[in-house]
């Protein structure tokens, strides 16, 4: 299949706004009119709860993963070892899916921030890097309970892992990793402002556990 058709298909896959579909179909609302206004997993968790949030996050990750795997339909997939062209195509397909998530053609070009889809892309290209980023995200989330800060930390860790730990040889992937860190920080500028002002929302990770303990002590 021609590369430009693969890129277009990757964008179309990314444009499937799961948060909008779930919120409208099962809850009768448009998630973009509530909470932070983003059509992503984090806002879905906050507005619609854990069940809807898990579904949206899993689907958004799958979008990035599937978009990258479209590279298997290209002419470069027949090489015994991944070529520069193959890796470049994977990066382009992943970026197309993330752009589709942020600017979905099916939902008036109003989407989310693309973090989950970006993770799916990385998972499709380098699973070990993806697992490492999950570790960074979870450690920061457990320590601070800020989803935004956890996302920012993982994004900054991405180029550091690529450059110094995994030593990725492809220049395009290095540039992508560095650009991703800047993009995530840029798209989270409002969250950064709230973090500095001390009014960013926290995820109540230990809330249920604390409530259960309080009931037992009562």
TrEMBL record:
Q: Which residues form a coiled coil?
A: none
Against InterPro entries, the record matches this protein to:
G3P_acylTferase_PlsY
What EC number(s) are associated with this protein in UniProt? Answer: 2.3.1.275
What are the entry keywords?
Cell membrane, Lipid biosynthesis, Lipid metabolism, Membrane, Phospholipid biosynthesis, Phospholipid metabolism, Transferase, Transmembrane, Transmembrane helix
Pathway listed for it is: Lipid metabolism; phospholipid metabolism
Q: How does it sit in the membrane?
A: Multi-pass membrane protein
Say what the protein does: Catalyzes the transfer of an acyl group from acyl-phosphate (acyl-PO(4)) to glycerol-3-phosphate (G3P) to form lysophosphatidic acid (LPA). This enzyme utilizes acyl-phosphate as fatty acyl donor, but not acyl-CoA or acyl-ACP.
Under Pfam families, the record lists:
G3P_acyltransf
Show the stretches that span the lipid bilayer: 6-27, 86-106, 118-140, 146-166
Give the primary localization class: membrane
Mind telling me what this protein is named?
Glycerol-3-phosphate acyltransferase
Q: How does it assemble?
A: Probably interacts with PlsX.
HAMAP family associated with the record: PlsY
Q: What is the lineage of its organism?
A: Bacteria, Pseudomonadati, Bacteroidota, Chitinophagia, Chitinophagales
Q: Which organism is it from?
A: Rurimicrobium arvi
Q: Where in the cell is it found?
A: Cell membrane
């Amino acid at each position: 299949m021609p590369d430009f058709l693969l890129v277009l298909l990757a964008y179309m896959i990314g444009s499937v706004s799961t948060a909008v579909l779930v919120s409208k179909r099962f809850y009768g609302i448009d998630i973009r009119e509530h909470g932070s206004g983003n059509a992503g997993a984090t806002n879905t968790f906050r507005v619609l709860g854990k069940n809807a949030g898990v579904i949206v996050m899993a689907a958004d990750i799958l979008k990035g993963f599937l978009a990258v795997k479209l590279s298997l339909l290209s002419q470069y997939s027949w090489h015994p070892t991944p070529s520069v062209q193959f890796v470049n195509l994977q990066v382009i397909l992943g970026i197309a899916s993330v752009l589709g998530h942020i600017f979905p053609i099916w939902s008036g070009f109003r989407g989310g921030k693309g973090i989950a889809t970006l993770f799916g892309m990385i998972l499709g290209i380098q699973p070990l890097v993806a697992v490492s980023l999950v570790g960074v995200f979870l450690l920061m989330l457990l320590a601070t309970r800020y989803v935004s800060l956890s996302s920012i930390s993982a994004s900054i860790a991405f180029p550091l892992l690529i450059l110094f730990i995994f030593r990725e040889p492809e220049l395009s992937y290095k540039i992508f990793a560095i650009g991703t860190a800047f993009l995530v920080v840029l798209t989270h500028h409002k969250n950064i402002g709230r973090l500095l002002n001390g009014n960013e929302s926290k995820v109540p990770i230990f809330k249920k556990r604390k409530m259960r303990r309080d009931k037992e002590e009562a």
